[in-house]
Structures are given as structure tokens and as C-alpha cells.
UniProtKB/TrEMBL annotation:
Domain FAD-binding PCMH-type stretches: 227-399
Segments of skewed composition (Basic and acidic residues): 153-165
Segments of this protein annotated with the region Disordered: 144-194
Name of the protein: Polyketide cyclase/dehydrase/lipid transport protein
Entry-linked SUPFAM superfamilies: Bet v1-like, FAD-binding/transporter-associated domain-like
Pfam families per record: FAD_binding_4 (PF01565), Polyketide_cyc2 (PF10604)
Gene Ontology molecular function terms on file: FAD binding; oxidoreductase activity, acting on the CH-OH group of donors, oxygen as acceptor
Length: 667
């Protein structure tokens, strides 16, 4: 039985008395040992008590804080899970026990959802919730048929005395022989946002990790009709030893091995038609969290959003994280890694303390900022040229990203020169801004011309009031609701929702949690809705910002007018304080311009694209800047070398190696 449109219900007969079932139902401390659905329950068993509940839905953790409304042993237990603003999405959860005899009873589980979002969210959760109900019933049936057990002395969340935390995640792919010093058992990423928000993707029409996806990279976002380029052989390592074995085998067979994590590149970096691919999908563990050193050691295929969610349960977080919920640590490190906090913390690679990688000869190399420094710097931002990253040790900060609310100090501009001036002042003078970003969007007019609008958001610390948190929750539930349904509806409705989402970006909410700032546009705008889109990213010294913006923006407008290859033009701006980029006397202050363009059907082809990126690279070179190398660059090797931030470090390492060899020969 599943219940009506606003209700989910399931009923099961159990081989035990009502008292016996009640005993197991309320022995919260035992849940982690046997309950597959309610993985954690804590709190006093009295009406009015707030519980801590963590469900497991579709393999994902869903934490919430309901209030007990009925405690009637051994017949009824009931709680209400309400949003900070009542009437938005409230769930009344019930457990009803009906005696059928001395050793038999019926357990009926049900929940009723009410509120503005209930018609949208309850149908989406019906299938996984019912599956959870039935898994719970099956486990409880086994439980009550056995003798009563004593609750454990240690709770699942008992504090640890060691400053380091190392736990096995019990995933099927983890092998028992992988718990060596080099490959300790991973920690399962856990915690974080509600299930429906974690499922929001900026590309609902395809997945990153299906078999079909292995023939594509991010180019399919701008060219949905591109033909696939499937590999012939796939290596799926789970440990560092597996990587070594795969690389050595490929070398012995004379095969070129490409590396793929989630395929975010649109610069022809990961596809290998008919070749061999090393897929980092199963290199997904958190190996160690060291509170004393404030570092975490993770495998290169670990998804940074999932790592951050696990860290959030420990009151920690990654300083720099991508704005997309499928970015892996190794993929991020291979290109640099930028976030709205980069004006404070730099690139993701600036936060890496040490790493292990496997060279293309199959040798395992450990390096850090102090040990094998040349290897360390040439592997970072190296696009996989020098080998396969296996593990990374990254810095952490103490932060509560899901509950800390910031206030958005926001500017709006209707003239591009006013936007350039306002953004330049903001990124050069961030003050106490914890996170910041700006965006200018230019739309074409029918009949010619265009109109634009810009805004800049600087997120500052604020009082953690109920009002601020309610404003954040209400605003972002609405925006994320748009993002959740985007890509699932008829095309015209999807386009209208995307326009509403773009309006939400331009008029960003006044209050936002750190996590809502980090994942803002990715949770609101679906790249597969409406016009195909493409990104071009330029990095340059901060003192070049104004002129760089004007030249690159006019380049895009000219191509739209003359080649009819773009629809809308948007450019997102951030500032970066990076030691990695500070090469050749540049200093460590940089700006990022990320162009996110709507592609015009028929107006863009390979020749036009190559001409465009060649001009873009030349502007970048003229301003002593770099390109973000996972976005399209010129195919000319000389130009690519000049705009690739890794080339300086690689050449420096080669020069030092040559000098060392000369000294050895001279001796």
C-alpha cells in the first residue's frame, strides 16, 4: 500500500508482540548496527524533543531535525519535520503498531507532506522512500524474531581521542588488501544537503559516469550532436598499486593511456577513440582526516563535493571547491581550480600540501612543497602530461558551510563601463568579503543591437539570526527548485524557467549559506536547456582587468555580429591570489574572466572556433596572462605553451634537472 497523492504509506505484519516491536523501534542507539533506512536517530523520547535523524535514500545520507509530537508506547510514535518557514514543506511521519496476538503485530509507516513545495517534492521522493520503508520492515522482521539485544556502549558519533580519523566505507569495490600504509581504507563521503538538492545537476540530459558517457567530454554541452569517440579498453583502478599496474601494462603494450575522471574538458584532453583509458571512478576514497595538521588525504577520483560533505560533519571544509557537484580532486588539480573564495585562498592547487603520482614509466613518486618540489609543481595543472595523480593531501579550514549564513553586499549596473569600474574596485578591495563574484550578461535585440546588465556580489559575515537563515532557506529553496525541474519539462517551459533562473542570478538573494554561494549557478541554471553553451576562461594579472575585459568582451561581440555564432554573452569575474600563478615576475594577484556563451545553431563551426580562440589566446598573451586549459584553446603548440600556466614549472624542472646532470658529469 503506497497511500494517496499527498501520503506515502506501507504496512507489514511482524513476528513479535507490540511491546517487542516498540522496544526495537525506540532503541535508537542500535540503529547503525541494523537499520538500513534510518541510519541514525538521537534524542530524548519525550513529546517536544528535537531529534537528530539521518536517513539513507538511494545510497545518499539525508539529515534532518524533526520534533516528536506523539509518544504512546507501545502503539504510536510520530514526529514533524518542518522547514524554518512553516507552510513550505512539512512532513508528518507516523509509526503505528497494532497488536494481532501475543506474538504478532502490524507496523504501519506513513508520512504526509503539506506546504507549497509538497506537490513537487513528494512525488519525486515516493519511490526511494517506499524502498526505505520496505528495507526497514525486512530488517525489523529479522530483528524481532531474534532475542533482544543490549544497546552498544559507544554511539556511532562517539568522539575520537586521536587527532586523525580513518574509517572504512565498506563499499563493494574496496578490497581487503588495500589497507596498506599507501592505501588505507577510505572514508565514505557523507552528510550535506537534502537529497533532492544533491540531485540537482547543471546537465539533466546526460550523466558523467555511464558507459555511454565515456565517448564524450564537455564539448557535448556546446555541440549536442557531436559523435562519440569510445575507447577500446578501460582500466578501472581502485588503489595506487592498480594505477602502477595499469600504466606498466599500457607501456608494455605500446598503448597511449588517457586519463578521465568526469570528462569536464572541452579542449580534447580525455577522449581516445579506439585507445586505452584509465578511469578514476573508483579512486574515490577519503584516506585520512588529520585535525592536528588540518589536512585531508584523498584519492584523486574523489568528488570534491562529496569530500566537502563528509568534512562538514566534522566542522571542516575545503577552502577552494568547484561550483559543480561532479568535479574530482584530481581533475580540479590538473587544471588549477577556482572558486568564489580564490581571492583569499588562491587556486585549489595552492591548497595542496603533497601528492603521489605514477609516472608514465610506472614509477610511484611522492612529492610535496619541500620534497621533490620540481615534480610537485610540474604535476599540478599538468593536464595529466606527466603521469597519473593517485593521492593528494589538501589543507582544511574550520567552517560550517551548511549553516553559516553570509550577507550579500550587491551592486547592479546597466552600463558595461559602470560594471567594469564597479567590479574592478570590488575585486581589488575585497575588505571582509569571504566570497565574491560578478557577472555581466549581454542579450541580443531583435532587429540588431543588444542590451546588458551586470551585478557584483560580495558575501560578508553577518549575525546568525533566524531571519537571515529563513531568508536564505526560502530564497534558495525556490531557486534550487527551478534548477531541480530544469531539463525535465517541455522545452518551452524549460526555457522560461532558465530565464527565471538567470534573473535569480542577476538579483541574487540577500542572505546565503556558504554552500549556497559555492554552488550557486550550478544549482540554478541547466546548461543543456535552451541554446547550447560553451565556456572560455582567461586568467591575467589583476592590474590588467579593465583593458582585458574590454578587449575580450568586444571580441565576443564582434564574432556574434560578424559570424552569428553566439546568442547571449555572459562573463563572470573573480579575483585570485595565487602563488602557483606568480611566475616570471607577475606577482600573485590575478583576475578570472569566464565567458559563458549561448551558441547559435549553424553559426559556429571548427574553423570559426579555431579563429576565435586564436584571437583570444593572443589577447591573453598580450596581457601576460594564462588560459584555463580545460576550455578551448588554439591548436598552435607555440601559443598553447605561452598560455599554459604549467609550462613555466615544467621548463624550470627540466632546467634544474639538466644543471644537476651537468654538475654530476663535471664531478
Amino acid at each position: 500500500m503506497t497511500g494517496g497523492a499527498g501520503e506515502i504509506r506501507s504496512s507489514a505484519e511482524l513476528p513479535g508482540s507490540a511491546e517487542r516491536v516498540w522496544q526495537e523501534l525506540t532503541a535508537f542507539a542500535t540503529f547503525p548496527a541494523w537499520n538500513p533506512f534510518i541510519r541514525r536517530a538521537e534524542g530524548a523520547l519525550v513529546v517536544g524533543s528535537r531529534l537528530r535523524i539521518r536517513l539513507r535514500l538511494d545510497g545518499l545520507p539525508v539529515p534532518f531535525r524533526p520534533t516528536l509530537t506523539v509518544v504512546d508506547p507501545p502503539y504510536s510514535l510520530r514526529w514533524l519535520a518542518a522547514q524554518p518557514i512553516r507552510g513550505l514543506f512539512d512532513v508528518d511521519r507516523r509509526f503505528e503498531i497494532t497488536p494481532l496476538g501475543p506474538d504478532r503485530c502490524r507496523l504501519t509507516q506513513s508520512e504526509t507532506a503539506t506546504g507549497l513545495l509538497a506537490p513537487l517534492l513528494l512525488p519525486l521522493g515516493r519511490r526511494p522512500i517506499l524502498a526505505g520503508y520496505r528495507a526497514f520492515e525486512a530488517a525489523l522482521r529479522t530483528r524481532v524474531a531474534a532475542p533482544p539485544s543490549r544497546p552498544p556502549h559507544l554511539r556511532e558519533d562517539a568522539p575520537m581521542t586521536d587527532t586523525r580519523r580513518r574509517v572504512s566505507n565498506g563499499l563493494p569495490h574496496q578490497r581487503s588488501d588495500s589497507s596498506s600504509a599507501e592505501n588505507p581504507p577510505p572514508i565514505a563521503p557523507a552528510g550535506g544537503a537534502p537529497l533532492w538538492k544533491r540531485r540537482i545537476s547543471s546537465h539533466e540530459t546526460f550523466a558523467h559516469d555511464s558507459i555511454d558517457s565515456l565517448g564524450y567530454d564537455w564539448e557535448r554541452i556546446s555541440n549536442p550532436t557531436m559523435p562519440p569517440r569510445f575507447p577500446r579498453k578501460i582500466y578501472l583502478p581502485q588503489t595506487t598499486e592498480d594505477i602502477v599496474a595499469a600504466v606498466r601494462e599500457a607501456k608494455q603494450l605500446g598503448e597511449r593511456l588517457s586519463i578521465r575522471s568526469k570528462g569536464h574538458s572541452s579542449n580534447d584532453l580525455v577522449l581516445t577513440e579506439g585507445g586505452s583509458m584509465l578511469l578514476t571512478e573508483k579512486l574515490d576514497g577519503i584516506l585520512e582526516v588529520d585535525r592536528e595538521a588540518m589536512t585531508a588525504t584523498i584519492q584523486a577520483g574523489a568528488v570534491s563535493a562529496q569530500v566537502d560533505d563528509h568534512l562538514s560533519e566534522l566542522g571542516l571544509g575545503l577552502p577552494v571547491i568547484g561550483d559543480h557537484n561532479h568535479i574530482t580532486a584530481g581533475g580540479f588539480a590538473s587544471v588549477g581550480g577556482i572558486s568564489p573564495a580564490s581571492h583569499r585562498f588562491g587556486l585549489f592547487v595552492d591548497q595542496i600540501e603533497r601528492l603521489q603520482y605514477v609516472t608514465w614509466d610506472g614509477d610511484l613518486v611522492a612529492c610535496s612543497r619541500e620534497e621533490n618540489r620540481d615534480d610537485f609543481h610540474k604535476v599540478l595543472c599538468g593536464l595529466g602530461r606527466h603521469g597519473v595523480m593517485a593521492t593528494l593531501t589538501v589543507r582544511l579550514i574550520e567552517i560550517d558551510k551548511y549553516r553559516t549564513v553570509l550577507k550579500n553586499h550587491q551592486q547592479h549596473h546597466w552600463d558595461v563601463e559602470a560594471f567594469i569600474s564597479g567590479a574592478a574596485h570590488a575585486i581589488r578591495n575585497p575588505g571582509e568579503a569571504q566570497y565574491e563574484r560578478g557577472v555581466w550578461i549581454d542579450f541580443p535585440r531583435r532587429g540588431g543591437g543588444s542590451f546588458g546588465m551586470g551585478q557584483f556580489s560580495a558575501y560578508h559575515p553577518t549575525d546568525q539570526t533566524a531571519y537571515a537563515k529563513a531568508r536564505d532557506r526560502l530564497s534558495y529553496d525556490a531557486l534550487h527548485g527551478l534548477g531541480y525541474v530544469g531539463g525535465r519539462l517541455p522545452a518551452r517551459v524549460d526555457r522560461a524557467l532558465k530565464l527565471a533562473g538567470m534573473t535569480g542570478v542577476l538579483f541574487s538573494p540577500m542572505y546565503a549559506t556558504v554552500k549556497n554561494v559555492e554552488f550557486f549557478t550550478d544549482k540554478v541554471l541547466d546548461s543543456t536547456v535552451g541554446d547550447p553553451t560553451r565556456m572560455f576562461i582567461v586568467l591575467a594579472p589583476l592590474d590588467r582587468f579593465e583593458q582585458l575585459f574590454r578587449e575580450t568582451y568586444e571580441l565576443m561581440r564582434r564574432y556574434r555580429t560578424e559570424r552569428d555564432c553566439f546568442t547571449f554573452i555572459s562573463v563572470y569575474v573573480k579575483s585570485i591570489t595565487s602563488e602557483y600563478l606568480a611566475t616570471g615576475g607577475r606577482g600573485n594577484q590575478f583576475c578570472e574572466l569566464m565567458f559563458y556563451q549561448g551558441m547559435s545553431a549553424g553559426g559556429m563551426d571548427e574553423q570559426v572556433l579555431e579563429e576565435l580562440v586564436t584571437e583570444l589566446d593572443d589577447i591573453c598573451i598580450a596581457h601576460d596572462g594564462f588560459r584555463y586549459m580545460h576550455t578551448k584553446t588554439s591548436k598552435d603548440p607555440a601559443r598553447r605553451d605561452k598560455v599554459d600556466p604549467n609550462v613555466h614549472w615544467t621548463r624550470l624542472a627540466e632546467q634544474r634537472s639538466a644543471t644537476t646532470q651537468e654538475e654530476v658529469l663535471g664531478a
